[in-house]
């Protein structure tokens, strides 16, 4: 497992020993250190993608890392919209990546291809596989 | 009911808290980050004297003073609204509502995005994000990356990443589009660097210092004959005649496309090359984060030298709304030292107002002088005409207040 | 280049902004209302300067003194329970 930590630094010194913390991300277990944010702990393992854009389903990661942009929003212990860059990891924390939402009226779909009934929409959803359970 | 709520625990907020606590005011400092110190915490650069400005140590020093005065600092608190009813301020946060007689908004700055195609891919981040990951969290942001945008901030942070052993291919300009404006223009970039070169810590910017007093003809010549391999900053090429056209990749950053540009920043066809990287840092500059001042109804003035829209305020850090103060980068983009000096002024101003004690006026005056001294001795400056900007906003306050 | 996203939260592209400004010949504010640029999750913190630059170019409007897009509270997304429900606690 990758560990991209800056252990030794010519000016800031050696990284002090910190307590190890175990948490899960999308069901998989990871370890980080006390003081890590969810974002830094995952990046230390080489994990960038924290969510997908709710409509386009394109993968997103941290952008500002200081709580302004909300690109890093994840679900923590069932609470959605939590900023990974500001949230310290805690023992046993369950983090889930942000999921896409159903978008039946996506403007990129030509009008003639839009579903006419809910049943049709459900059929199409299964085909495109871009939508998840809400 | 508190005497003052200070929004932001950066150098401005902490310094203000210290002056307030010295006068025994009842203070609450709030910050949404899990560590105190704001963006000072991640700073690390060498002064022209050779001494290191270590943000972690500077923050520790401020916190030691604040803690010695038993300052109530609450972290992981996000303020979503501020209201004034009669003489009382209500500060609404994710952890409850705090009532206070005075409020200091010291929320600092946000980064101006310099979008280029592909900038939403995982692996692309603001230059500030890289600083925080590197110096605060001590995590490498990737295996090999590139910095897009050549300015004081990006050069300083690129150096910080090098120090931490992060592999950077080079620094280059963003390819021109309506949004990137001057940052894509080699001449303008050189001008900006040359003018503040003598103040900046990094070797690359000192390269520009030779042109600081040179005529624009000489500077234009420097741009025209800028080495195609870039000017090396501790082994890393810095380009002002090369630009990044796009960031490429399917689900994450895989490469960038770089090309040569004319002295005006126009891409030269046929010079494209693809560079494999797994992270990209975008540096578009900083702008004051004024949203809370805006919801409070504080009037603004657009002042380019200060970084954008700035809340109207005077040298005592008062806004036209009684009991509402501002300090730090929200008042205009300058260094952490200036932010701290402004915070001290704000703290004394608030104490003078809260206690109705004219004697504190002496401290206000002295700390105002200190701001000027700190500004004059600044080793990092983001805009050469900062004094003009400051004069204009103080003037605005007079106009507004009469 | 045209497809380039300017507002990340709402995925509004450069083309969307310019086309809307030209099609409706309207103010910067109206373009934002039509495209939702600057009205996404981050409250415009990331894209506002960029959107303003595009719209200045497209509409010819100069930056005015007041903050260009009126800022409405809450400036951070908040759960309803915190805004007035069971989680609210005052001091």
What does this structure look like?
The complex is a heterotrimer of chains A (134), B (402) and C (91). Chain A contains two helices and nine strands, in the order ββββαβββββα. Chain A is an alpha+beta fold and 134 residues long. In chain A, the strands form three sheets. Chain A has a five-stranded mixed β-sheet, with helices on one face. Chain A has a two-stranded antiparallel ribbon with strand order 1-2. Chain A has helices spanning 38-44, 118-128; strands at residues 8-9, 13-14, 20-25, 28-33, 51-52, 59-60, 73-76, 79-83, 94-96. Chain A is elongated. In chain B, the strands form five sheets. In chain B, strands 10, 11, 12, 13, 14, 15, 16 and 17 form an eight-stranded mixed β-sheet that branches. In chain B, strands 1, 2, 5, 6, 7, 8 and 21 form a seven-stranded mixed β-sheet that branches. Chain B has a two-stranded antiparallel ribbon with strand order 3-4. In chain B, 59% of the residues are buried. The mean pLDDT of chain B is 92. Chain C has helices spanning 14-24, 28-35, 48-59, 80-84; strands at residues 5-7, 12-13. In chain C, strands 1-2 form a two-stranded antiparallel ribbon. The longest helix of chain C is centred in the middle third of the chain and has 12 residues, at 48-59. Chain C is 40% helix and 5% strand. The interface between B and C is large, with 38 and 35 residues.
Give a brief description.
The complex is a heterotrimer of chains A (134), B (402) and C (91). Chain B contains 11 helices and 21 strands.
The total count of helices of chain B amounts to 11
Biggest sheet strand order of chain C reads 1-2
* Cα-atom radius of gyration of chain B: 22 Å
- State Rg of chain C: 16 Å
Q: What is the number of beta strands of chain B?
A: 21
Counting copies of identical and different chains, the oligomeric state is heterotrimer
Beta-strand percentage range of chain C: 5-15%
Q: In DSSP terms, counting alpha (H) and pi (I) runs of 4 or more, how many helices of chain C? A: 4
| SS-based class of chain C | mainly alpha
Low-pLDDT segments, ≥5 res of chain B: none
**Sheet of most strands of chain B:** 8 strands, mixed
N- and C-termini, Cα separation of chain B? 31 Å
């Amino acid at each position: 497992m990758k560990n991209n930590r800056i252990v030794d630094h010519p000016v800031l010194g050696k990284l002090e020993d910190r307590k190890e913390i175990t948490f899960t991300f999308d069901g998989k277990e990871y370890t980080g250190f006390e003081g890590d944010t969810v974002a830094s702990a995952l990046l230390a393992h080489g994990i960038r993608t924290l969510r997908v854009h709710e409509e386009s389903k394109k993968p997103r990661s941290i952008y500002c890392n200081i709580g302004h942009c909300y690109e890093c929003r994840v679900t923590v212990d069932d609470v959605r919209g939590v900023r990974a860059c500001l949230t310290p990891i805690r023992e046993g924390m369950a983090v889930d990546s942000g999921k896409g939402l159903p978008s039946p009226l996506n403007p990129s779909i030509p009008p003639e291809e839009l579903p006419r009934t809910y049943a049709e929409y459900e059929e199409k959803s299964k085909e495109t596989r871009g939508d998840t359970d809400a | 009911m508190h005497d003052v709520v200070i929004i932001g625990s950066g150098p401005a907020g902490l310094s203000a808290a210290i002056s307030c606590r010295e006068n025994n005011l009842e203070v609450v400092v709030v910050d949404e980050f899990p560590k105190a110190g704001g963006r000072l915490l991640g700073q690390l650069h060498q002064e022209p004297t050779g001494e290191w400005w270590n943000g972690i140590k500077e923050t520790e020093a401020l916190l030691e003073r604040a803690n010695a005065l038993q300052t109530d600092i609450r972290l992981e608190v996000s303020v979503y609204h501020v209201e004034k009813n009669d003489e009382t301020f209500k500060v609404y946060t994710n952890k409850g509502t705090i009532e206070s007689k005075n409020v200091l908004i010291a929320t600092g700055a946000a980064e101006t995005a310099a979008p280029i195609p592909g900038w939403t891919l995982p692996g692309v981040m603001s230059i500030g994000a890289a600083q925080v990951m590197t110096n605060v969290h001590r995590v490498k942001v990737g295996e090999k990356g590139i910095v897009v945008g050549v300015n004081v901030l990006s050069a300083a942070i690129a150096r910080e990443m090098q120090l931490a052993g992060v592999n950077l291919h080079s620094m280059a300009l963003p390819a021109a589009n309506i949004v990137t404006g001057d940052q894509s223009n080699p001449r303008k970039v050189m001008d900006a660097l040359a003018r503040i070169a003598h103040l900046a810590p990094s070797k690359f910017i000192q390269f520009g210092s030779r042109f600081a007093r040179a005529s624009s003809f000489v500077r234009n010549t420097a741009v025209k004959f800028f080495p195609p391999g870039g000017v090396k900053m501790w082994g890393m090429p810095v380009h002002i005649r090369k630009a990044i056209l796009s960031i490429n990749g399917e689900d994450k950053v895989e490469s960038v496309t770089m090309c040569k540009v004319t002295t005006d920043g126009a891409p030269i066809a046929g010079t494209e090359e693809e560079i494999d990287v797994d992270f990209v840092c975008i540096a578009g500059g900083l702008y004051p984060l004024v949203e809370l001042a805006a919801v409070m109804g504080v009037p603004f003035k657009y002042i380019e030298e200060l970084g954008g829209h700035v809340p109207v305020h005077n040298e005592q850090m008062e806004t036209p709304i009684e009991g509402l103060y501002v300090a730090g980068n929200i008042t205009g983009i300058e260094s952490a030292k200036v932010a701290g000096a402004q915070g001290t002024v704000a703290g004394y101003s608030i104490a003078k107002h809260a206690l109705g004690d004219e004697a504190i006026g002496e401290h206000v005056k002295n700390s105002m002088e200190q701001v000027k001294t700190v500004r004059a001795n600044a080793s990092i400056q983001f805009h050469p005409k900062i004094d003009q900007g400051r004069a204009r906003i103080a003037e605005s306050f007079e106009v507004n207040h009469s | 280049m045209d497809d380039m996203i300017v507002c990340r939260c709402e995925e509004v592209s450069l083309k969307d902004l310019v086309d809307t400004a030209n099609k409706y010949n309207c103010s910067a504010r109206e373009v934002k209302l039509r495209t939702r640029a600057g009205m996404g999750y981050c409250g415009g913190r990331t894209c506002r300067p960029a959107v303003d630059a595009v719209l200045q170019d497209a509409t010819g409007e100069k930056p005015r003194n007041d903050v260009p897009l009126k800022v409405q509270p809450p400036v951070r997304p908040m759960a309803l329970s915190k805004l007035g429900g069971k989680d609210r606690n005052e001091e």
